[in-house]
Amino acid sequence: MGMRGVVISLSSISRLMEGKLHQASSLTALRRFSDKGRILSEEERAKETVYIQKMERERLEKMRKKAEKEKAEQSDKKDEGEAHKS
């Protein structure tokens, strides 16, 4: 009985993942249209792709800086704690 539950949940997870992949591919297809419903030219799609990549790089850089800042703060707190113990 227990094994059957595992098999059912694994199949459910795989169906969910397939749904997510389908959503991602449909979003990609939607990206090829402008707000006015016309199909974007190759040049417009290229500009859009560059813009999206730039935004993604900026977002990742921001997350990296935030993580470094948090790590430095934790290190400072740890150093202060050791100084008080001595």
Automatic annotation (TrEMBL):
Q: Which organism is it from?
A: Lithospermum erythrorhizon (Purple gromwell)
Superkingdom of the organism of origin: Eukaryota
Q: What is this protein called?
A: ATPase inhibitor
Please list where the region (Disordered) is annotated: 61-86
